[in-house]
Amino acid sequence: MNKLVSVVSVLGVSFAFGCGTDEGAMQTGPELLPNLTIPAPPEHGLQVITPIVRGLAPGSDHEICTWTDAVVGETPIDVKSTIGFQTEPGHHIVVYYTTVPQEAGLQRECTDTDMVSFRIVTGNGKEGEPTEAPGNLVYRIPPHAQIVINHHYLNATDEMMDGQSAVNINFAPDGGSYVPSGSTAFLNSGLVVAQGVTTQKQSCVVDRDMKLWFMIPHMHRWGKHIAVDLTHGDTKTNLFDTVWDESFTFHPPEKRADPAAPMMLYAGDTIETTCQWNNDTGHDLNFGFEMCVTYGQFIDDKNQGSWACDDGHWTDF
C-alpha cells in the first residue's frame, strides 16, 4: 500500500484496493442504485464507487466531478488499464488527476476552473469495456496528485433519473520498465449544432510530432456521418469515412497500431474533421449533447503530457 498516501471511505465515496496483501477489504460505502454493476475490486489497484447523482432532469446534460481520497505518494503510479460501469443515463467515465487538491469526497458539477487543473489518465464507456495501454505503455500519474473521477450523464429520456458510476483502476505490475501514453483530441468545445441536417468542418495544424497507437472519431446520437482526413505535405489521406450509427457513440470504429510501428503525425500536418448531423430535437444542440471529435493516444516518450487542439488552438488537458 505504498503507492498511495491514503485510500479510505470518505463522505460517501467508496473505495476498495488491492496491493497483493490481505488489506483489500471493501470499505463501508455509499448507497447503491440497484442497476449499477459493480465488479470485484482489482487485485493490484483501486476501485472507486461514486455517490448517487440525484434528480437528473429530462433533457439535461451533467458533467459531475468527484474528488477522491486517493493521493499519490512520493513516486508516480503507472496505471495499466481501467474499466468503467454506469447506470443509465451514464455516458462516460474519465479518470483525471489534479495537483490542485480539493476536500476528499467533494462531488459537484464540474466547472471550467476545475477542468483547467485536471489532466486526463483514461476514459471509459459505461458498459465495462476496458481501456488498456498496450505493450510497455502505461497511463502515468505523478507524485502528490489527487485522483478525480469525472462521470457524465446525458438524460435524453422524458423521465427524471438518478445515476451512479464505478471504475476499477488497475496498476501496472511492479518492477517494469514503462513509457507513458498521452492523449490528444481535435475538437471544437464551442460547437453548436443547428436544427435539421447540417454539416460542419474543423481543421487543426499539428504543432508537434506524435506517434499514435490509437485513434477514433466521436459523435452522439444525432450524428449521420463523420470523415477524418490527414494532410501531410501535398498528400491527403482519409482516416475515417463513416456513416454514423447511434451505437458508435460508445463503440466507435477505431484504428490501432503496434507501438513499434505507430501512426505518425508530424508538425505541420493538418487534421480535418467533417461532421454531419440530423438534429430533429426542435432546438439547437450544444457541445456535450453533440460532438465532432477525433481522439487519439500517442507514445509520450518525451513526457509532453496530453494535448488537445480546440478550434485550432492547442492546449494541455
The end-to-end distance, rounded to whole angstroms, is 29 Å
> Oligomeric status of the shown chains?
single chain
- In total, how many beta strands? 27
Report the principal-axis shape.
globular
Biggest sheet features: 13 strands, mixed
Strand content: over 45%
Mean pLDDT: 88
Protein architecture, described:
It contains one helix and 27 strands. The protein is an all-beta fold and 317 residues long. The protein is globular, with a radius of gyration of 19 Å. The protein starts with a strand and ends with a strand.
What's a quick, concise take on this entry?
This protein is mainly beta and 317 residues long. It has one helix at 112-117; strands at 4-6, 14-19, 44-49, 53-56, 61-72, 77-86, 90-98, 107-109, 118-124, 127-132, 137-141, 146-154, 161-163, 165-171, 179-187, 192-193, 196-205, 210-218, 223-232, 235-243, 255-256, 263-265, 270-279, 285-286, 293-299, 307-310, 313-316. Strands 2, 3, 6, 10, 11, 14, 15, 18, 21, 22, 25, 26 and 27 form a 13-stranded mixed β-sheet that branches. Strands 1, 5, 7, 8, 9 and 12 form a 6-stranded antiparallel β-sheet that branches.
